[in-house]
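Issue 218. Parser rejects a valid record. Input:
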Amino acid sequence: MRKVLLALTLLSASLSSTAFAQQQRSGTAEEQKACARDVSRFCRSLMDQGDFTILACLQQNRAKLTKPCSQVLTNHGQ
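Output the parser choked on:
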């Protein structure tokens, strides 16, 4: 779960508005919940390789992600 939070932090950091990114630093509880299953399903073996790796994994598996997680990525410009 910690890696999910870190991955969502990266999503937040990619926003153009720095102030908003600081407020949403680790993603909302809803965003975390939306992507937790997808991270576990598609990126479990990469969880110890860092946040950018998890984000890349989610992007590579975009077509397979649940709609809520895909929407989280879209909302954060990914």
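Fixed in the parser; the record now loads. The chain has a mean pLDDT of 78.
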